[in-house]
Specification:
This protein is mainly α. The protein has a single domain, classed as Up-down Bundle (Growth Hormone, Chain: A), CATH 1.20.1250. It is 74% helix and 1% strand. It contains 18 helices and 2 strands. Strands 1-2 form a two-stranded antiparallel ribbon. Helix 6 runs antiparallel to helix 15. It is globular and about 50 Å long. The N and C termini lie close together (6 Å). The N terminus and C terminus are likely disordered.
């Protein structure tokens, strides 16, 4: 149960409640964890269906990765305006229902031997549109559900769930691909959305209706601009956003190349490729769960400056992987990269959520997604083009080396001179002073 602003003012020394005792967050977290496990199955099974079933080339796999994330570049900005004008939970429910149908069309088509690359591209693009609206809504919803001091832990736990989903989902994908094939394995993802919808429907929350605003193209442009300006006019937020966008460019290259590298260079059987990446993704679980404690121990500013340069340094081992026992270098490098990404991601999301006024969160989150995730389709396409032009191993070098260097964009900022972000002058309105209308009443 969340305290009201008045209660905070009257009893400022009340001890923090553990997130484990906040039912609304636990239910939301449970549904998202199961959904993320299903999504990880599709992360492996969809490109494997293209590679093993439809014999896709590196360029075609890169196009599939680009289609998966193209929606973030196409609709993220207007999505923020929509999210700020509506209640968040109904949007999330509608998006999950739509993804159940969209993702479920793949195993249905496979059962009738009608699966094509064109359908995979369409599924990736339309499911991506739903993901945009869901993710923007979820970040705003969680920010209202938790107290400001719980945001890093809350987003760290959600980040850990994403990594847990990668581990368990990819392991599950390997088993399903071996037993029923890549295309039919995607059924698990469709079912996971049904679980997520059930959890969202069971939340006993009263979400206030946002203030009604005028419609029109001019108003839309003004509201979109407000979200972008909140980021671009704050030097620290701008630097962390630039670093995240550059990082996602190289991550998308990795996504389009990793499975091809495992199957065609390291000679891993398709049914085991998901298991190898699942072992590496264990690093992301550790990073997400430890993000808050690492930030407290070494400083939140230092985490944002040096996550990839220090924690992610062993990722440079990955391109040295070879068939046989040296496949372990892939696991170690992938795990280090996932660990660093989880720490940096939880820290920068918590920071931008804490300084943003509640009425602007949807547009700010959408603007952040547009900038940060808008590089993903470019990176996926670049991975396919570079992999086809110079070979998979050189392309892997570029992808992992580039991600390691992205911290330099933040190092050359005011953050490098302080231990914690709070040691600098505030860049925005802290959410702790939000209006009571922003709070969600929990039962």
């Amino acid at each position: 149960m969340r305290q009201t602003d008045a209660q905070y003012a009257e009893t400022p020394v009340l001890p923090r409640r553990s997130l484990w005792r906040q039912r609304a967050f636990v239910v939301l977290w449970t549904g998202q964890t199961i959904s993320l496990v299903g999504s990880a199955v599709t992360t492996i099974a969809l490109p494997l269906a293209a590679i093993a079933v439809l014999r896709a080339s590196p360029l075609q796999v890169g196009l599939l990765t680009a289609a998966t994330y193209a929606a973030f570049a196409l609709v993220a900005l207007p999505a923020g305006v929509v999210v700020d004008r509506l209640r968040k939970r109904p949007i999330m429910i509608c998006c999950d229902c739509a993804r159940l149908v969209i993702i479920g069309s793949v195993p249905v088509a496979a059962a009738f031997h009608r699966l094509t690359l064109a359908q995979l591209y369409a599924v990736a693009l339309t499911a991506g549109v739903c993901a945009v609206f869901f993710d923007v809504s979820q970040q705003s919803f969680v920010s209202s559900l938790l107290a400001p001091e719980d945001l890093t832990e809350g987003f760290g736990k959600l980040g850990a769930s994403a990594s847990f989903g990668q581990v368990s989902g990819r392991g599950l994908a390997s088993a399903l691909v071996a037993v029923i094939g890549a295309a039919r394995a995607i059924t698990a993802d469709a079912l996971s959305y049904a679980v997520s919808v059930t959890c969202l429907l069971s939340l006993k929350v009263v979400e206030p209706r946002p203030e009604r605003k005028s419609a029109g193209i001019r108003q839309l442009r003004r509201e979109v601009a407000e979200g972008l300006q909140f980021i671009t006019r704050r030097p620290i937020l701008r630097k962390t956003t630039e670093s995240s966008a550059a990082g996602n460019l190289f991550i998308a290259m990795q996504i389009s190349l990793n499975l091809l590298f495992l199957v065609r260079v390291l000679q891993v059987r398709p049914a085991l490729a998901g298991l190898v990446t699942a072992l590496g993704a264990l690093g992301g679980i550790m990073g997400g769960m430890l993000a808050a404690s690492i930030g407290r121990r070494i400083g939140t500013a230092r985490v944002l400056c040096f996550s990839h340069l220090t924690f992610g340094a062993p990722a440079i081992l990955l391109p040295f992987a070879e068939p046989g026992w040296r496949i372990a270098l892939f696991v170690v490098g992938y795990g280090a990269s996932a660990f660093a990404c989880a720490i940096f991601g939880a820290s920068q999301v918590a920071y931008r959520q804490s300084i943003c006024p509640p009425e602007l969160r949807g547009r700010m989150n959408a603007a952040s997604r547009w900038i940060i995730w808008g590089t993903l389709p470019v990176g996926g396409l670049l991975g396919g083009i570079i992999g086809s032009a110079v070979g998979l191993r050189p392309a892997i070098w570029i992808a992992y080396g580039g991600l390691w260097a992205t911290d330099l964009l933040v190092v050359f900022s005011p953050l490098r001179r302080v231990r914690d972000v709070s040691d600098l002058a505030p860049e925005g309105t802290v959410a702790a002073g939000a209006d009571k209308a922003d709070k969600i009443a929990t039962a």
